[in-house]
Write a structure and sequence with these properties.
Blueprint (H helix, E strand, L loop, with lengths): L1 H13 L3 H13 L4 H21 L5 H25 L6 E7 L6 H12 L3 E9 L1 H10 L4 E5 L8 H11 L7 E5 L5 H7 L3 E3 L2 H12 L3
Helix pairs in contact: 1-2, 1-3, 2-4, 3-4, 4-5, 5-9, 6-7
This protein binds CO-5-methoxybenzimidazolylcobamide.
C-alpha cells in the first residue's frame, strides 16, 4: 500500500502535478508512511527521473521547473516534520551566480536539483562576490560551494572566490563546484575548483562525488 502511494507521488511529480503531489504526500503521512520514505522513494525519486530525462534532452527547462514546483508543494508538508525527526540532509550547498552576472535560470535549476536530491541548499542569488561565498560557507558550515556563470567576462570571478577561500583558511573545508554555459572541465582544472557539472542533473552527481555521498 505504502509503495503504491510512493509510486503515485513520484509519477505525479514527474508530470508536474503540484496539487496531486501535495494531496498524495498528505495521504502518505495520514497512512503513517515514514517521512524518509516519502522523501526518498517519492519526491526525490521523481525529481531524479526528471533530472535523468533532462540530461538526455527528453524534457526541457519548463518541465523541470514545473516538476520542481510539484516537489516544493510536497516538501511544504515534509519540511516541518523533517526538522522534528532529526533526519539529516545529505549536505549543505551554498550556491550563487558570481559577481557581475545576473543570469539565474541555470543556477535556480541547480538549486532545485540539489534540494530534490536531499541537500540543504542556501541560495545566495545573483551577483555574489567572493567574500559572500566565503562567509556563507563559514556561517552555514557548507560542504559544497556552487558557482554559476553565464558570461565569459564573469567566469573569471570564480578564481577570486577560490583565492578568497584560501586566504580565509577555509579552502580545505569545502568542495567547490562550478558550472555554466561558457565553462568546461579544463577551465575548472585551470582555476583549481574541485568539480565541473555541465547541467543541473549532473551537478547532483558531482556534488555527491565530491562529498562521498553516492
Ligand atoms: Co544573457 N547572455 N545577457 N540574459 N542570456 C547569454 C548568456 C548569451 C550567451 C547570449 C548571446 O549573446 N548569445 C550572452 C553571453 C555571451 C558571452 O559571454 N559569451 C549574454 C549576454 C551578452 C548578456 C548581456 C551582457 C546582454 C546585454 O545587456 N548586452 C546581459 C548581462 C547581464 C549580466 O548578467 N550582468 C544579459 C542579460 C540577460 C537577461 C537579463 C536578459 C536574461 C537573464 C534572465 C535570468 O537569468 N533571470 C538573459 C538570458 C535569458 C540569456 C540566455 C538567452 C539564456 C540563458 C539561460 O537562462 N539559459 C543566454 C543565451 C543562451 O544560453 N542561449 C544569454 C537556460 C539555462 C537553463 O541554461 O544557464 O546554461 P544555463 O544553465 C545550465 C548549465 O549551464 C548548467 O546547468 C544549467 C541547467 O542545465 N549550470 C550549472 C549553470 N550553472 C551551473 C552551476 C553548477 C552546475 C551546472 O554548479 C554550481
Amino acid at each position: 500500500m505504502s509503495e503504491e502511494v510512493l509510486d503515485q507521488i513520484s509519477e505525479n511529480l514527474t508530470q508536474g502535478r503540484a496539487p496531486q503531489v501535495k494531496e498524495l504526500v498528505q495521504k502518505a503521512l495520514d497512512e503513517g508512511v515514514d517521512i524518509e520514505q516519502i522523501l526518498n522513494n517519492g519526491l526525490v525519486k521523481g525529481m531524479g527521473i526528471i533530472g535523468e530525462k533532462f540530461k538526455r534532452n527528453e524534457v526541457y527547462v519548463p518541465e523541470v521547473l514545473i516538476a520542481a514546483r510539484a516537489m516544493n508543494s510536497g516538501m511544504e508538508l515534509i519540511k516541518p516534520k523533517l526538522a522534528e525527526s532529526g533526519i539529516e540532509a545529505k549536505g549543505t550547498a551554498c550556491v550563487g551566480t558570481v559577481k557581475g552576472d545576473l543570469h539565474d535560470i541555470g543556477k535556480n535549476l541547480v538549486c532545485m536539483m540539489l534540494e530534490g536530491a536531499g541537500y540543504n541548499v542556501v541560495d545566495l542569488g545573483v551577483n555574489v562576490d567572493a567574500q559572500t561565498f566565503v562567509s556563507s560557507a563559514q556561517d552555514h558550515d557548507a560542504d559544497v560551494i556552487g558557482m554559476s556563470a553565464l558570461l565569459t567576462t564573469t567566469m573569471t570571478a570564480m578564481k577570486d572566490t577560490l583565492d578568497a577561500l584560501k586566504e580565509s583558511g577555509v579552502r580545505d573545508q569545502v568542495k567547490v563546484m562550478v558550472g555554466g554555459a561558457p565553462l568546461n572541465q579544463s577551465f575548472c582544472d585551470e582555476i583549481g575548483a574541485d568539480g565541473y557539472a555541465a547541467d543541473a542533473a549532473s551537478a547532483v552527481d558531482v556534488a555527491n562525488d565530491l562529498i562521498g555521498k553516492n
